[in-house]
Amino acid sequence: MGIIGAIVLGIIGAVLAVAGMILTLANLPGVWLVFLSVVVAALVDRFEVIQPRLLVIFFFISLFVSLIDNILVPFGAKKMGAGKWGILGAVTGAVIGLFLGNLIGVIIGPFIGALIFELLIGKKSLDLALKAGFGTFIGFVSSVVLKFGLSVAMIAITFVKLFRG
After folding, report:
1. Considering Cα of 126, then 128, then 129, then 130, what sign does the dihedral take?
2. Which of 57, 100, 109, 126 is most buried, by the most CB atoms less than 10 A from its CB?
3. Containing domain of residue 42, as a range?
4. What does the pLDDT look like over 58-88, one tens digit per residue?
């Protein structure tokens, strides 16, 4: 691969990493874009410093984070008394929040969605609906922090390995 190809792949890898971090903050599966950015870095590096073993480790970290992500939000919601309507409301709130309020909407949306769905459809009292909304919010924040932290770690390890040689 020539210098131009390496530069192009490097730019693609950087864009994937940044997009992955943004998606992760929006509680979307951005960790996979971060993983792809490491794969691109390995290609540019010709697998000399970023070796297949590291890619396998990062793959399993990404898989683990994706699985945990699907458990944390419902677990937080259930732990605080949310029913199926609260969980559905949290997902709906996150999606609507993403489009209406960007990052802040994604953070607050699950809480508001769980609260509204539990109140109106689940017919729960305000106290129980607030508790369910709070549990959903805690699960959501925990999920984002975990995904973001592991994404940052993958990028940092890759960066250090590439520039330390």
Report:
1. positive
2. 109
3. 3-164
4. 999 999 988 887 777 777 777 777 788 888 8
